[in-house]
Amino acid sequence: MTEQQADAEPGPRAVPAAGPTLRVEHLEITYRVRGQDRPVVRDVSFEVGRQESYGLVGESGSGKSTVALALVRYLARNGRVSGGSISINGLDPLGLSAARLRDLRARTVSMVYQEPSRALNPSIKAGRQIAEVFQIAGLDRASSLDKARDMLRKVQIADPGRAMDRYPHELSGGMAQRVVIAMALAAEPALLILDEPTTALDATVEAEILDLIAELRRELATSVLFISHNLAVVASMCDRVGVLYAGELVEEGTARQVFGEPAHPYTVALLHCIPRRGQRKDQGRLDAIPGFLPQPGRVTAGCVFAERCSLAADECRTAPPPAFPLGGWHSSRCYRHSEVAELPKTTVYEGGEPGQTARPVAPLVTISSLSKTFGTGQNAVRALANVNLKIWRGETLGLVGESGSGKSTLARTLLGLIPPDRGSVLELDGTALSASLPKRTLEQLKALQIVFQNPDSALNRRRSVRWLIARPLRRLAGLSGRRLAERLDDLIRSVRMEARQLNLRPGQLSGGLKQRVAIARAFGGGPRLVVCDEPTSALDVSVQAAILNLLADLQAKEQVTYLFISHDLGVVRYLSDRIAVLYLGRIMEIGPAEQVFAGPHHPYTEALLSAVPSLDGKRTERIRLTGEIPAAASPPSGCVFHTRCPRRLASGACEHAEPGLDEVEPGHFISCHIPFGELRRLQAPGIAVQVKDQAQK
Amino acid sequence: MSADVAVPGEVTVAHAYAAPPASWRLLARKPAFVAGAGILLLWMACAVLGHLIAPYDPLAQQLLARNAAPSGTHLLGTDPLGRDVLSRVISGARDILTIAPLATLLGAVLGTALGLIMGYFGGIVDAVISRIVEAVLALPVVIVAFLFVVAVGPSSLTLIVVIGFIFTPLIARTVRTAVLIEGQQDYLPAARLLGERPAYIMIAEILPNVLPVIVVEFTVRLGYAIFAVATLSFLGFGVQQPTPDWGGDIAANYGLLGAGYWWETLFPALAIASVVMALNLVTDSIEQVLSS
Q1: Residue A173 lies in a domain
Q2: A149 and A295, same domain (yes or no)
Q3: In chain A, which residues have their Cβ closer than 8 Å to the Cβ of B123?
Q4: If you measure CA to CA, which chain B residue comes closest to A461?
Q5: pTM of this prediction?
């Protein structure tokens, strides 16, 4: 990265060439809640140099977005900067008049937020919204529209002319975020603040947007403040990184220093939480961080992380540690920074029997010719097309694919929540499962349960935890009286909560605890198959680890089968024995997790895998998918993936014939015209780059 | 904490967010609510204890003191039959404050039931009931009530039923919208997967969550019900004379306004206005607390 910086020409706006673009010194931010001042950001200092990309990472509640909002004075009404200073290009936004502040926001700083659909005005066409930025800068209407078209070209929108005339709701998520980025860059800002810019997007689209941001940064010589909870994204996008915890910058350094040789226990613990390449549930558990993030605004005497830190000593609890310089850019607010490399693991894995999921004779669930069409006639959307699938007893079948690939539809038809098309056959233990939920027997109802993505929505907020968990015990397990109370106690302990929490309502629990309640409810009736529909995507990394561990433990204990849906391939790999890859409602590939990940795999799987940013900050050889997933209403002819496939055959077979799902290795099926041997040759390391070059020609 | 470290893959879970303050506490802090509730309580006291508070029998005619202006003996004056206006205003609270809440309650119960059914089942059920509801809403309220009372004959029960039925479609529509929003929550499919029946899901799962909406709607409708009862009485189809009644008394005496006997009309009118205003104050506060 540093060579690129040296090569790049200074940007047109780099007027005061000396000094950093952004300097934040001893920043303190306070929110006034119920008449009390609560400090949420404490003594945060950092700099973003000219053309530098600086990353702020932290979990939700760490104060990273609050810092970003304070920079342009967008804090909520009850928030204020209570100390320290901010300097953007030498200007102090805190002391500016309203007019000068508006000018700063218009010309010097731009922000891109997480939800592109909310950043755009729904009633103004995309082109006009970008043109506005130029009009404010003083251009006339016609030339500002021309400029807007140029910007759209710059953010690599395939057909800028058409995109100009679209309303925001007519744009896909990725396209909308490109438009937002085009708007942000139109004023050629000195500082671009990106607040979780890709969190709402699919991995494949995220990879494209990240590439785009990296490219534009080089071209426009803009300084970037990149805020994300995703360590890997920050590692791949940023020169330097600051780690925020409970409103304090606990560690700072170059991306390589922070992620390669972390010097703060919190950073180390965070890195331990993430399922690393190839880590699997039968090899060990993930490391969760004990305890909870302190509530915003709580004042601690010593180090903010002390109560969750296994290295904490007496001095950590009495005096806040200063930032210890560790050479170069690296610094850590930890008294014991030299010892953190040996941070003990918080979790002890008692060891299951690896490879216990030997394939039994009969499958638990058989799905044959499952199709689901939404709507009729012209508006018919085929969400699932002729899916055949077996789920074996005790295994975890991972279901992956971009949004719109039919993962949730598949799970919900199996559960009986939505009826499949005629001709679809669902079987449980060899007996037919009715498509309609009320027609299913009690045994069948008990057998299939679900854990939803968002526990806020999945738990009735007016009910106590006790009510929520007792209901399935009464309905499905038929318990009452003392046996109910005993089982309730048992269940709440098995999700590692305490009996006294039974009386609380969901609103009084943290996100992770709510998800535990949802898991307890799913296990109440003694299920045989639990659908996990993105159970950790609404949670923080440290909480995610604990939930994944819990799911793995429960599976080992209860011998339950999982249908695990996730867009996070690391998470899927950790928990899954087999993986099915879905694209436009069709299975592209299915097989043992190891083989699907190791390859040779379907070109779509290959693309999904290469879209995942890696923590070591190295850019892997990437196969990029161009464009978005096509509309399921009008799927492409032949192989549905051919429009985006980087390995499409020149013979034209892909456009004309739909390939069958063929067994290429024992238990490993791929639906592709390219012979397996050829896939092996193509996907050998080193060859991928050439293919990418060819595809671009 | 140390005991829990040995548990595989786990962390201590001993933490709860502070319970939010109860809604009524927040309400009690709002001056508008306190004022509104105070006025309402006063009128309710009049409705219940009217005969004890009133200085005179509201029906007793003092033919020597007809159309007497407010004075020390008759604080709010007397009417053309020499009846004490203050006593009639106090006693008049009883009927209107019985009929209006009962009518609103009837409308709320029926409307909630319909709204739950429309919102939960959707599709053809919703389409059919929605059309009927719209048809009823298209009818002019006063005329329908008027015709009904003429046909059945005026009585408190008739008023309750008529106003209740008129309110049903309005409340049903509000509840339906709230149910549709709840319908996107995942706790409904979760309940279905436990084999719960539709009636149970509607009453035990959805109803508690749409209750705030119903409470607000109830208080808003209550204000309209007061108006409706007073209007019908004014037109002669509500509470019948000589029973003391605000609307009826206004109707009986407004002809004498020109003669300068303003107190016979003004005080019953102020009574109606104060109840409706107090209800609005209460409604606004409840709405603010529930939406915050």
Answers
A1: yes
A2: no
A3: none
A4: B209
A5: 0.83
